[in-house]
Amino acid sequence: GDSVTQMEGPVTLSEEAFLTINCTYTATGYPSLFWYVQYPGEGLQLLLKATKADDKGSNKGFEATYRKETTSFHLEKGSVQVSDSAVYFCALSERSGGSNYKLTFGKGTLLTVNP
Amino acid sequence: DTGVSQDPRHKITKRGQNVTFRCDPISEHNRLYWYRQTLGQGPEFLTYFQNEAQLEKSRLLSDRFSAERPKGSFSTLEIQRTEQGDSAMYLCASSLALTSGGANEQFFGPGTRLTVL
């Protein structure tokens, strides 16, 4: 079945540091790939997505490129801020019969950014 | 607020009791999903509705769990004879089917945190 493996945390960085959170996936077909973020006390929010190979998703300074050859979708940001402190989830969506596009999530990576 | 809402936000119950959670999706969304999230894990899929039809259930959804979406709008998730292992965050998400088919963004509610004593 489908699965997502992401870098274990927690990750602690200083403000303005470079961020990479690794994510690899296993899927039977051609999934869409997502990064969701969960800020303290809030629900899951979509951060960015990519729907086909070589697509780059970007939002709020974060980027991730859909790499089919390495089955990866690593999240990067050039200069993190304290406000980026959150849990980040990598996820994939693949049609599971009919119209079901359920999400399969990784375990999440807790990021803490210190001033 | 036009986002996904869930009620209650927190529920504490004793083992063996029944509980019911409600999810109100974004009004025009025809797809609705339930997920369960335990501490330190990502959300896991439980069940999926397209309009009022429940089209898929995970093996995680034992016979004690039942979900409905009677008019294709709000949905309820009921757990009968709760067990301590049911303690988790229950998340609801909704999305709008694309006319071209394919995945679309799922919008998540804040979740209902269930604690079974």
Topology, pairings included?
The complex is a heterodimer of chains A (115) and B (117).
Chain A lengths: L2 E4 L4 E4 L4 E3 L1 E4 L5 E7 L5 E7 L5 E4 L2 E4 L9 E3 L8 E8 L9 E3 L3 E6 L1
Chain B lengths: L4 E3 L2 E4 L5 E6 L6 E7 L6 E7 L2 E5 L7 E4 L6 E5 L8 E8 L11 E2 L3 E5 L1
Parallel strand pairs in B: 2-11
Antiparallel strand pairs in B: 1-3, 3-8, 4-5, 4-9, 5-6, 7-8, 9-10, 9-11
Task: Provide the descriptors you would attach to this structure in a database record.
heterodimer, A: about 120 residues, mainly beta, six-stranded mixed β-sheet, four-stranded antiparallel β-sheet, globular, B: about 120 residues, 11 strands
What does this structure look like?
The complex is a heterodimer of chains A (115) and B (117). In chain A, 0% of the residues lie in helices and 50% in strands. Chain A is an all-beta fold and 115 residues long. In chain A, the strands form three sheets. In chain A, strands 2, 5, 6, 10, 11 and 12 form a six-stranded mixed β-sheet that branches. Chain A has a four-stranded antiparallel β-sheet with strand order 3-9-8-7, with no helix packed on it. A two-stranded antiparallel sheet of chain A has the order 1-4. In chain A, a hairpin with a 5-residue loop joins strand 5 (32-38) and strand 6. Chain A is globular and about 45 Å long. The termini of chain A are far apart. The model of chain A has no long low-confidence stretch (mean pLDDT 93). Chain B has 117 residues and is an all-beta fold. Chain B is 0% helix and 48% strand. Chain B has strands spanning 5-7, 10-13, 19-24, 31-37, 44-50, 53-57, 65-68, 75-79, 88-95, 107-108, 112-116. In chain B, strands 2, 4, 5, 6, 9, 10 and 11 form a seven-stranded mixed β-sheet that branches. The N and C termini of chain B lie far apart (33 Å). In chain B, 34% of the residues are buried. The model of chain B has no long low-confidence stretch (mean pLDDT 92). The chains are: A mainly beta (115), B mainly beta (117).
